[in-house]
């Protein structure tokens, strides 16, 4: 039912609105640094462990085809509780600081909850709405980004300035939201897709989410300019909750419509029981699911009269076959469709559609021997293949083509996969370097409230993910341009944000957070849809998580190796007049003050973004014909 599909989508929105762990690191990292006595390189190592847990969801990707959605969400919620609950015990000094490797393990386990939540929600919702991948990914991944601001508001309203308590929020809130909603997260394969209605529903959801983002943006700037009481902060939190609840109107409208249809159905049933049967209505209800099915007359037409069975002896029975073998046709009779994965029939070029060799219907009749029976079935199969149309069958070559279903091993052999991975190492890795160092950047420039910049990055991250989903969908459907083209633009613009961080003029932290948050969000909107288009949906969860694993690689290279080392170097260089010395690997706690602390780091990040843009440009060039083929056929089908 459409109502169940949209209720699933809204529940996934609520669940992912609590899944933010990446941007909030700047809130709780200072207390871990103080309690455990870590230097900046240690903090960067914790950040990398967090990014590995959040992005490397290969286990979740493998199991998403075997486990129900509710179980995956429960596993993710338990990860949050275990990891961040343990960190809260350390930060609140209820237990002694653990060895460093155990602290890294705790934050990795906690961040793994995001990977399980992401995989369960994305895989389920993309399968439910395969024709709206851009909006689905944009809204869901956007709320993951916005969740940083949502959780920050919850913390500011009830727990600030007790920084250790924020770790308790990260551990408990995802579990509290997932438990009552996870039973509604399931695939609805039988739903018929009405593009007009689906577009209208997504517009309603996006309007609500945009209102939430604007509301939070205003609240952030008000909190920055005015010292608010705890009561006012609580009211701001409840206003935020109102915007989160409003998308529930979409499934509620569908449930109301279903209730009205059921009421009319029962009234018609009562009339039929009284003998008042509407024949025209019955004819409409009994329309065949498969049009232009070959008649048995055409099958027997080539047989001699002695071989042709009597009309009463003909019997047609369906095979018990998978939906992949079903063939249907539109009014032109030349289009194949896949009911389990509708995108195969709609987005695959004619010369790339594969016809299942197993017959859909087997003709049985009484009074004919087995040899004639086989002859009839062979003729029937030949006529069905001819009816599908020339070009619908292709000769299978070694390995799938772009747009077909790849396994992970097959995807690893493709240059497109590695171009996408390297592009994400550059784009997301440099973006995470800025996000993970917000606390130190704010401190070095004299700001005391880190929550402001965390919320600012979060809101623009959401806007980037939402706009990235819709803009990329517009590019591919209206102009037949490759979706990664938007990724190329985002990486060029992100380089400007890193340059602003490096210059460090007044309000540069505000402007840089806006640009980097926006472009980082675009990355996460474009990548999942690109993976599903190039490598198919069958193993989408696994391949998506394999590409996402590039993020912590970039985070380690740029945040831990480069930013952490350069920050400590600048801090000790500034203390040289006191006679202190410093060497690589020193555990002495230091703090750097001034614009120079991150200047060289973000100058390097500018170059990294341009390297990523060059790699993305190669990917755009390689896939340009693929997108023309996919979406030109899809447009002509409508």
Briefly characterize the structure:
Helix content is 69%, strand content 2%.
Q: What report would you give on this structure?
A:
This protein is mainly alpha-helical and 638 residues long. The protein folds into two domains: 2-254 and 403-575 and 583-637, MFS general substrate transporter like domains (Growth Hormone, Chain: A); 296-388, no CATH class. 69% of the residues lie in helices and 2% in strands. The chain is built from 24 helices and two strands. It has helices at residues 2-16, 25-36, 40-55, 58-63, 69-91, 100-128, 133-158, 164-181, 195-225, 230-245, 249-273, 279-285, 296-300, 342-347, 370-388, 408-412, 415-436, 438-444, 450-478, 484-503, 508-535, 540-548, 550-574, 599-637; strands at residues 314-318, 361-365. The chain has a two-stranded antiparallel ribbon with strand order 1-2. The radius of gyration is 29 Å and the shape is globular.
Strand and helix map with partners:
Layout: H1 2-16, H2 25-36, H3 40-55, H4 58-63, H5 69-91, H6 100-128, H7 133-158, H8 164-181, H9 195-225, H10 230-245, H11 249-273, H12 279-285, H13 296-300, E1 314-318, H14 342-347, E2 361-365, H15 370-388, H16 408-412, H17 415-436, H18 438-444, H19 450-478, H20 484-503, H21 508-535, H22 540-548, H23 550-574, H24 599-637
Antiparallel strand pairs: 1-2
């Amino acid at each position: 039912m459409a109502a169940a599909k949209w209720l699933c989508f809204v529940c996934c929105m609520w669940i992912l609105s609590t899944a933010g762990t990446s941007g909030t690191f700047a809130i709780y990292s200072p207390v871990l640094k103080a309690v455990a006595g870590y230097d900046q390189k240690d903090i960067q190592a914790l950040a990398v462990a967090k990014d590995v847990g959040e992005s490397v969801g290969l286990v979740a990707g493998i199991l998403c085809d075997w486990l129900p959605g509710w179980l995956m969400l429960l596993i993710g919620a338990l990860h949050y509780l275990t990891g961040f609950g343990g960190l809260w015990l350390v930060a609140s000094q209820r237990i002694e600081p653990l060895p460093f490797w155990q602290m890294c393990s705790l934050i990795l386990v906690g961040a793994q909850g995001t990977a399980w939540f992401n995989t369960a929600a994305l895989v389920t919702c993309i399968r439910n709405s395969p024709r709206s991948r851009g909006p689905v990914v944009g809204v869901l991944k956007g709320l993951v980004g916005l969740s940083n601001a949502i959780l920050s508001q919850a913390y500011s309203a009830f727990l600030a300035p007790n920084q250790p308590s924020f770790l308790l929020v990260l551990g408990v809130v995802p579990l509290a939201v997932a438990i009552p909603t996870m039973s509604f997260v399931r695939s609805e394969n039988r739903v018929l897709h009405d593009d007009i209605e689906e577009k209208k529903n997504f517009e309603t959801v996006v309007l609500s989410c945009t209102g939430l983002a604007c509301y939070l943006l205003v609240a952030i700037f008000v909190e920055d300019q005015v010292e608010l009481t705890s009561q006012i902060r609580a009211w701001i939190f409840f206003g935020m909750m109102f915007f989160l609840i409003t998308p529930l109107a979409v499934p509620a409208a569908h449930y109301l419509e279903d209730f009205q249809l059921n009421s009319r159905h029962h009234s018609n049933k009562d009339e039929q029981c009284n003998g008042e049967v509407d024949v025209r209505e019955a004819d409409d209800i009994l329309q065949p699911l498969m049009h232009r099915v070959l008649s048995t007359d055409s099958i027997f037409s080539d047989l001699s009269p002695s071989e042709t069975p009597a009309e009463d002896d003909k019997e047609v029975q369906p095979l018990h076959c998978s939906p992949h073998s079903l063939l249907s046709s539109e009014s032109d009779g030349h289009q194949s469709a896949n009911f389990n994965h509708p995108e195969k029939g709609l987005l695959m070029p004619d010369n790339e559609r594969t016809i299942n060799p197993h017959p859909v219907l087997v003709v049985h009749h009484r009074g004919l021997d087995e040899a004639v029976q086989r002859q009839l079935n062979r003729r029937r199969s030949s006529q069905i293949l001819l009816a599908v149309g020339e070009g619908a069958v292709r000769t299978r070559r070694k390995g799938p083509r772009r747009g077909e279903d790849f396994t992970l091993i097959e995807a690893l052999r493709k240059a497109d996969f590695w171009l996408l991975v390297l592009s994400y190492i550059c784009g997301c890795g440099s973006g995470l370097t800025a996000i993970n160092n917000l606390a130190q950047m704010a401190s070095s420039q004299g700001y005391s409230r880190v929550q402001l910049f965390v919320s600012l990055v979060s809101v623009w991250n959401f806007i980037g993910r939402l706009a990235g989903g819709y803009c990329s969908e517009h590019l591919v459907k209206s102009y037949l341009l490759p979706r990664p083209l938007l990724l190329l633009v985002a990486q060029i613009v992100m380089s400007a944000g890193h340059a602003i961080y490096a210059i460090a003029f007044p309000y540069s932290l505000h402007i840089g957070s806006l640009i980097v948050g926006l472009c980082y969000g675009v990355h996460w909107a474009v990548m999942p849809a690109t993976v599903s288009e190039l490598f198919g949906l069958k193993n989408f969860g696994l391949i998506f998580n394999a590409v996402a694993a590039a993020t912590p690689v970039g985070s380690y290279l740029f945040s831990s190796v480069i930013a952490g080392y350069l920050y400590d170097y600048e801090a000790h260089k500034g203390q040289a007049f006191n006679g202190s010395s410093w060497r690589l690997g020193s555990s002495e706690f230091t703090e750097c003050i001034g614009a120079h602390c991150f200047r060289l780091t973000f100058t390097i990040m500018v170059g990294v973004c341009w390297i990523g843009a060059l790699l993305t440009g190669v990917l755009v060039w390689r896939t340009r014909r693929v997108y023309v083929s996919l979406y030109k056929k899809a447009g002509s089908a409508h």
